[in-house]
Prior knowledge:
Helices cover about 15% and strands about 40% of the residues. It has two domains: about 1-35; about 40-215, no CATH class. The protein has three helices and 16 strands. The chain is mainly beta. It has a four-stranded antiparallel beta sheet with strand order 2-7-4-5, with no helix packed on it. Strands 10-15-12-13 form a four-stranded antiparallel beta sheet, with no helix packed on it. Strands 1-8 form a two-stranded antiparallel sheet.
Amino acid sequence: MKTAHLLAISLLMIAAVALFMYIDPKITGLPVLSTRVVILTTQGSNCNMTFFQGWNLVSFACIPGSQEMDFLNITYGSIRTYDSSDSSDPWKSYNPSLPSYVVHDLTSISRAKGYWVQVQNETVFFKNSTLAKPTFITLKRGWNLIGLPNQTISDTYNTFETLIPGLDYIYLYNASDSDWKEWTWNTSLPSDQDLNRSPYGFGYWIYMLNETTFTIQ
C-alpha cells in the first residue's frame, strides 16, 4: 500500500513539472527545443554512365544511403573527393590497388558528394538501385564538391536558385570532351557561361560566399 502511495505521488510530481515547463519554459531556465521531422522517400533509379580514359568528375544519384567502395564495381586506379568540412585535410582518397594494410581516408560513397575517378580504359558503369529524397547538403564558405541527386535535368539557374546570393560560381568537368563548363548568376566570371543545363551523374564544384544548406528535392 505504501509503495502504491509513493508511486502515485511520484507520478503527480512528474506531471506537475512537465505542465510547468510546458506553460512557461523560460521560468525553468531550460532551452526551448525545436525539432524537424524529415520524411525520406525513395524511388527507382539507376546509375548509367561512361567513364573515359583519365579523370572523370562524377556523382551517383542512385544511392539511398552511404555505400561501401565496392559499389563502384569497375576497374579504376583511384577515386578522390573533397570534404569542405575538414579544413586541415579536405582531400580524401581510395586506391584499390594498394596493399590491404594501407588505411584509406575515403571509405564510402555518398549521393551528396562529387568524385574524381581515374580509369585507364573507357568503361561503362551501370547499377540499378533507389534514390532517397530529399538530400540536405551542407555547403561551406569557399569550395565544395557535391553531387546532384535527382532525376531532373533543368536550367542551371532553376537548379541552384535557392543558393543565390550566397553562391558565387559553379564548375563542371565533362570528361567526354575534356572540357570545363562554368556558370555564375552575377557575371563574376569574365568568360562565356556555357553550363546552361544541370545534368545529374556529374560532380559540381561550387564556390560559396557563405555557409548554407542546399536542399535537393
